[in-house]
Amino acid sequence: MVDLNDKVVVVGAGLMGTGIAHAFASSGFETRLVDTSEEALAKAQKSIHGILDSGVKLGKITDADAAAAKARLTTCTILKQGAEGAKLLVETVSENLAIKKAVFAEAVPVLHEAAVIATNTSALSVTEIAASVVTPERVIGMHFFNPVHKMKLVELVLGIATDEATVAASRAWCDAIGKTSILVNESPGLTTSRMSAMLGNEAMWMLQEGTASAEDIDTALRMGFNHPMGPLELGDLTGWDTRLAVLRYLHSTLGEKFRPCPLIIKMVAAGRYGRKTGHGVYKYDDKGQRVLGSGLRASNL
Fold this sequence. Notes:
Residues 7-186 form the 3-hydroxyacyl-CoA dehydrogenase NAD binding domain. Residues 191-284 form the 3-hydroxyacyl-CoA dehydrogenase C-terminal domain. It is a single chain. By secondary structure, the chain is an alpha/beta fold. It folds into 2 domains: 8-185, Rossmann fold (3-Layer(aba) Sandwich); 191-300, N-(1-d-carboxylethyl)-l-norvaline Dehydrogenase, domain 2 (Orthogonal Bundle), CATH 1.10.1040.50. The protein contains 12 helices and 8 strands. The chain has helices at 15-26, 38-57, 63-72, 79-83, 97-107, 126-130, 164-176, 192-209, 214-225, 231-238, 240-254, 262-269, and strands spanning 7-11, 30-34, 73-76, 88-91, 116-119, 139-143, 153-158, 180-185. It has an 8-stranded mixed sheet with strand order 3-2-1-4-5-6-7-8, sandwiched between helices. Helix 1 packs across helix 2. 45% of the residues are buried.
């Protein structure tokens, strides 16, 4: 069902779009990464090349494989040009329904007639996004996890119109890039985003209340529950602006248990989104490495 000659277009050159584009290019597919910002595209391409070069150094891939993957990746600022003829579209733009609908409305008419139309949304309605196209049965949520090159799970989210052929094709795409897929009926926050939002929000309440330092809260989850990252570290990686948008949506749909912690609102207002701005719960150096001992405590809130 999936052929290495099939083309993939990824829309949005942020953290997730970068990782998704790497996954497909490194798995043998011609991949086009589209964004309106040339700066974002250059940053994404540099990041993807860095992941590939690291793979060579670690002996996970050969020089030839890395070079081939780099050659399969192209960037573009014109959506219709990048999407033309693609058998899979993965949209990874900001969590804004109007923007996602606009992307689909522009890109879908130039895709391959049997293309899977996927959104990487972590909270918004796949059904509502699909309403912007004339073939809603081909629309599915394809929710990847960060960092994409390390995380094996993809949530496939069914909209009300998503058909069995689209599900089968989406599973095949996931298999082709070495990911494990699960099926999720459309629900606010899906499975993982809903649980992760709750955990991160509660961690911020604990931090605000002075229950423990940021480092100790994160250590508790890593060492006590074998989580690979603590909830505050993960929030810094994901971006607290994104986390706040998801929490506000969950609060509006699922009620008071998802009311955003005031500390998250304060941090976002201050531009302290996390790694991408160099400062969130923790501070980060120019290479994106966390500065030791920089975590927030109740005494400095």
